[in-house]
Design a protein that fits this description.
This protein is mainly α. The protein has a domain of 168 residues: Chorismate Mutase Domain, subunit A, CATH 1.20.59. Helix content is 54%, strand content 7%. It has a two-stranded antiparallel ribbon with strand order 1-2. The protein has a two-stranded antiparallel sheet with strand order 3-4. It starts with 8 loop residues before the first helix and ends with a strand.
Length: 259
């Protein structure tokens, strides 16, 4: 499209080199109506897209936190089953078996096993926290409620774990989101309350380390993309020391020493 008669492209385009013999300035190019509306349209589209993504992440995160809270609630049945039988809450062998099982499940589902195992370590600690609270109440005189068989309890836990791992891949965008921590705090508050009761505190404990660790780059906080690995650096060649030998006119001569 040819330029307007009173518009010189050489004067209107910034960043271009001036002509060797520039023409007299003719004023800036007139902006069309669409050009004036273009920044507003771009800003509106960005707000719509970002708002939709945040709303989707909030829904996925709140649903997953709800499953974590349901897993924590099974700890009451576990404590009621262990206390009458004088079984200890701390069972390191059983914990190792659970973590090994989750590692194998993650590999079968094509998930990174390390974050899965790290998350389940927090789940186990939160579960034990609720068990200790219940046992304290039993020792003070509260009668334990009748507990279902241990096999039924483990079957319920496996069902919840299947739901948690099934939604794991949908949480990658949430973990890498710069607003992951406030989003997680809001989801915990909506599911477990203000965090002043034992279930609320246990829910906070279960989700420690959920968000991706932040990284600092040039003084600014950034979050590494999920699955991104650091590029290996090339090894630097060895530098041989130099020796000083007398040269002509008494000047020292530098020569590389054998390596």
């Amino acid at each position: 499209m040819p330029a307007a008669p009173d518009c010189d492209p050489a004067n209107a385009r910034a960043g271009r080199k001036r002509r060797e013999f520039p023409l007299p300035p003719r004023g800036p190019c007139p902006m069309t109506a669409f050009g004036r509306l273009l920044p507003a349209i771009a800003g509106t589209l960005w707000l719509l897209v970002s708002g939709t993504a945040l709303a989707g992440n909030d829904a996925v995160l709140q649903r997953w936190v709800g499953w974590v809270a349901e897993r924590n609630a099974i700890a009451h049945d576990v404590a009621a089953s262990k206390y009458p039988a004088a079984r200890p809450i701390e069972d390191l062998q059983r914990e190792a078996e659970v973590l090994d099982d989750k590692r194998r499940r993650a590999l079968r589902m094509g998930l990174d096993p390390e974050p899965v195992v790290a998350a389940y370590r927090q789940f186990i600690e939160a579960n034990k926290l609720l068990q200790y609270v219940d046992v304290q109440r039993y020792r003070l005189g509260t009668t334990p409620p009748p507990a279902p068989p241990l096999e039924d309890i483990r079957r319920r836990i496996d069902g919840v774990d299947q739901a948690l791992l099934g939604q794991w891949s949908a949480l990658d965008a949430v973990r890498a989101d710069p607003h992951c921590e406030p989003m997680l705090a809001q989801a915990i508050a909506q599911v477990g309350g203000a965090g002043t009761t034992a279930p609320g505190i246990a829910l906070v404990r279960a989700l420690v380390g959920f968000c991706a660790p932040p990284r600092w780059f040039n003084g600014r906080r950034s979050v590494a993309a999920a699955g991104r690995t650091r590029r290996p650096t090339r090894p630097r060649p060895a530098v041989c020391p130099t020796t000083r030998t007398p040269g002509p006119a008494g000047r020292p001569r530098h020569s590389p020493a054998p390596c």
